[in-house]
Design brief:
The chain is mainly alpha-helical and 361 residues long. The chain has 3 domains: 54 residues, no CATH class; 84 residues, DNA polymerase, domain 1 (Orthogonal Bundle); 156 residues, hpI Integrase, Chain A. Helix content is 50%, strand content 7%. The chain contains 15 helices and 5 strands. A 3-stranded antiparallel beta sheet has the order 1-2-3. The longest helix has 20 residues.
């Protein structure tokens, strides 16, 4: 073999496939390994579909062979890419880079697109297809805010497809459907009726913490005991939330009572054991239906908090800070309170008895 020994071949083989062109990466939240490599200055990931490191290393070596042999199509070949395989690849990317809640939102929205379009070539997606998926969602009875939320995630996925060169020309995205600026909130009687239908004390506390603080379900799910009383008397909200920055809300007396109950059944680092935003939503909607309030969703507990703040006479600036709104425009929708409250408010003005009109001379 001209001086080349089997040992040298093995060493060369090992050097070749330990090349940094593809590396092993593990997602902490799931334990699943990925092959990670650079293509045209952009990082790509592919799930190796195993949490066993030895198997992952073996699969990585096989993957590197395919990559070097040109069997892994570069993104630039994606002009012929169709929706179904793109969704699989895109969700793998989201699973590796975003939270479980974000993954579930994209998964739900892209399922709507798949149901509406079929396995359409991505290059053929037009604004007409966008209109169709939105119309199909409305036909199934989804509320306009939900339709718009799914649309935003479909739009973001398609924009990512374009950045990956799966779509050559820009899509003329239509505007979201206009939403009526009306807030749904529960009266105290309705809230008691709904809560009475829940048989899990921990889930009751989960719901009531939202009703007494205005926290979103995803924010409550992420709460840990390190967030409680941090600083003293306040609840820290993770910067991973919607506003992308750390914030704090005061722990009022009702919220403190809820946290005290949670502490008695403390089992881990998290304040609540619930992990899925979708599960929380389904559980709440069932209780709402059972109490004769089928139109209400979990997020309406946040609206309930904001609306009752407004009806108690709090000024807009205070409500904005407690709700953690970036814009006052978001706060102002809570001033559209019920006709009953407006009637009660109008009755508060009383100028006292007026003198009798003067008699004409």
């Amino acid at each position: 073999m001209n001086g080349i020994t089997r040992r040298n071949i093995d060493m060369n083989y090992q050097t070749l496939y330990s090349d940094p062109m593809a590396k092993l990466w593990k997602r902490k939240s799931t334990g699943v390994y990925y092959a990670v490599w650079m293509e045209d200055g952009k990082q790509r990931k592919k799930s190796l579909k195993t949490s066993n490191r030895k198997i992952a290393n073996r699969k990585l070596n096989n993957f590197i062979r395919e990559l070097r042999a040109g069997k892994i199509k570069p993104i630039s070949h994606g002009i012929r890419q169709t929706l179904y395989p793109f969704v699989d690849e895109f969700l793998e990317h989201i699973a590796a880079t975003k939270s479980l809640t974000t993954y579930e939102l994209y998964e739900t929205a892209l399922k709507k697109a798949k149901d509406s379009w079929g396995d359409i070539p991505l290059q053929h997606v037009t604004s007409r297809d966008i209109d169709k998926v939105m119309a199909d969602m409305i036909k199934t009875g989804l509320a306009i805010p939900t339709v718009n939320k799914n649309y935003r995630h479909i739009k973001a996925a398609l924009n990512k497809a374009r950045s990956w060169n799966y779509i050559k020309n820009p899509i003329d995205f239509p505007k979201p459907i206009a939403e009526e600026e009306k807030v749904r909130y529960l009266s105290a009687i309705q809230l008691k009726s709904l809560i009475s239908e829940i048989d899990d004390p921990e889930f009751v506390d989960f719901c009531m913490l939202s009703a007494y603080t205005g926290l979103r379900s995803s924010e409550i799910i992420r709460l840990t005991w390190d967030d409680a009383d941090n600083p003293k008397g306040f609840l820290r909200i993770s910067p991973k939330q919607k506003n992308k920055k750390e914030s704090w809300i005061p722990i009022n007396a009702n919220a403190k009572a809820i946290l005290d109950r949670c502490k008695k059944r403390k089992e881990g680092h998290k304040i609540f054991r619930f992990q899925s935003r979708q599960w929380v939503s389904k559980k709440f909607k069932k209780a709402a239906r059972d109490s004769g309030l089928p139109d209400f969703r979990f997020h309406d507990l946040r609206h309930t908090w904001g609306s009752h703040l407004a009806m108690s006479g709090e000024n807009e600036a205070t409500i904005q800070k407690l709700m953690r709104h970036k814009s006052m425009a978001s706060t102002m929708i809570y001033t559209n309170v019920s006709p009953e409250y407006l009637k009660q408010a109008s009755e508060k003005v009383n100028y006292g008895p007026m003198p009798l009109p003067k008699k004409k001379k």
